Amino acid sequence: MSDGPEADVVDLLGDEYVRTILTETRARPQSVDALSDACDADPSTIYRRVERLEEAGLLTPNQRLDPGGHHYKEYGATLEAVHVYIETEGYDVELDRTADEEPADRFTRLYEGFK
């Protein structure tokens, strides 16, 4: 039987807010405010889910600068697929994640985000 981080993902996916957050952040990064609207939930509820998803490595934060000079984060999903295999001994979980971004590409994207 699977245990550890992969098995924790199965528990996380049981939460409707988590599923919505992952769906909303799949195409493009979203702020907590945008995710709060999409989930029809209080921002504090979304912050808790985002924190759990970050800990599981399923969301990655990106710092943004708005035109007024304030900083805020947007979150992008790193999860592409979850495979659960039922076996005689229990189950096994495999995660497909997006390819890691090269450091130079990440720097360029972050720099352009501050322009």
UniProtKB/TrEMBL annotation:
Organism of origin is Halobellus salinus
InterPro entries recorded: ArsR-like_HTH (IPR011991), WH-like_DNA-bd_sf (IPR036388), WH_DNA-bd_sf (IPR036390)
- Domain of life per record: Archaea
List the Gene3D superfamilies.
Answer: Winged helix-like DNA-binding domain superfamily/Winged helix DNA-binding domain (1.10.10.10)
Protein known as: Transcriptional regulator
